[in-house]
Amino acid sequence: MLQALAYPFDSPELLRHRKQYRRQLLADNSQRIPKRIAVLGGSTTADIVSMLELFLLNEGIAPTFYESEYAQYWQDAMFPNETLAAFQPDLIVVHTTCRNITEFQQDLTLSEDACREAVQRQYQKLEAMWDKLAETYHCPVIQNNFEFPSYRLLGSADASDPHGLTNFVTELNRLIYWYARKHPQFYVHDLMSLAACYGLDRWADPSYWYLYKYPMALQAIPDYAYSLTRVIRSIYGKNKKALVLDLDNTLWGGIVGDDGVDGIAIGPEVPEGQVYAEFQSYCKALQTIGVVLAVDSKNDEANALAGLNHPDSVLHPDDFVCIKANWDPKDQNLKAIAAELSLGADSFVFADDNPAERAIVAAQLPGVATPVLDGAENYIKMLDHGGYFETTILSGDDLKKTAQY
Prior knowledge:
It contains 18 helices and 9 strands. It has helices spanning about 10-15, 20-25, 45-60, 75-80, 80-85, 110-135, 165-180, 190-200, 200-205, 205-210, 220-235, 255-260, 270-285, 300-310, 330-340, 355-365, 380-385, 400-405; strands at about 35-40, 60-65, 90-95, 140-145, 185-190, 240-245, 290-300, 320-325, 350. α6 (about 110-135) runs parallel beside α7.
C-alpha cells in the first residue's frame, strides 16, 4: 500500500503525481480483485475516475471503468445502451450533485403543497432510474445524497421554509434514505457530510463549474474519490475489522507505569481526562458495528490492567478480545493478535500516539492502517474521517463480534 494514499493525504500532491502513483501501484504485483465499475455522471467525471482508480488499487481492487458522456447519466440508465450492456458492470456509481436538481423553483408564491410535489417529482425521476438500473444490470448501485446549496436565499429560514433550496435538498435526501432502506443492493454515498466537512465555500468553487463542469473544486476530488472508495471497499468486504490500541497517551493521558493509576488523565475531573474518556467512548461504540478491539502496549501487564480498571475508564479488560501488554516489538504483538483471531494484517487499524511505533508497524506489516494521531482531541476525527470501518450492511452477527471472538 502507498502511504501517499493513506488518510490524511495531500490532495494537490496526489493530483500532480497521479500517473506516477498509478505506475507504482500496478508494478507492485499485488493480487487484486477485478471489478467493472460504471460511473454515470451529472457532471465531468474524468478526474474523479482517475483518483478513484488510485484509491481502489491501493485497497486491492483492480477497476475497469465505463464513463457516461457529460451529464448523460439519465439517458444511459433509462434508454438501451449497447456499450454499457456489453461492459456488464459489477457496480454502478451515479454521481449527481445539487446542480443536477431540475424540479426546484425559486418561486415564493408557490403553495406548500406545490413545493412538496416538486420534491416528489425530483425523487420519482431518481427512483425510476434506480429501478431501471436494477432491472437491467442486476448489480449494486451507489447513489450519493445531495449536498446543501452554496447559498441560502432565505438565510437561516432556507432550511425550514418549503420554498428554500436547502429545505428541498433535505426532503429529497430523506426520500433517498427511505429507498435505500427498502433495497439491499442500493447504497448511499454521503456527499452532504463530505462537502460540509470540506467546507461548502471551498467545495462549491463556481469557477471550476464554469470552466470544467466540475461541481466541486479540483482539490476536493481526491477527498470525494477516497470517500467513494470507502463505500466500494465495504461492499466488497475489504473494510477493516479490528482496532488495535496503545494505552499510554492513547487511551489515557500519561504513563501508568510512571504516574500510577491515580496519576493518569481519564474521566471528568480535568479537560485532558474528558478528551480521553470521549475517545474511549467512541472506541466502545465501534463494537456495536462489529469492530473488535485489542491492546498492543509496551507495558507491564499488571499496570495495563490497572489502567483499564480505573474507575473512570470507559473501556475495561473484557472489552478487548486480546491484550498484549509486554515489552516485545509492537509489530510482533500485532502478528500474534492476527494469528489468534485468524485475520489477515489488512484487517487491522493500529492506533498509537507514537509516530516511531506507527512507522515500524507500517514498515513491517504493510496491510495494517496506521492513522496519524496528532493530539488526543483529534483521535476521533482521524479514525472517523479515515473511514476504516465503513458500514454498508449491518447484520446481527456484527453486533456479537466481540462475544464471538
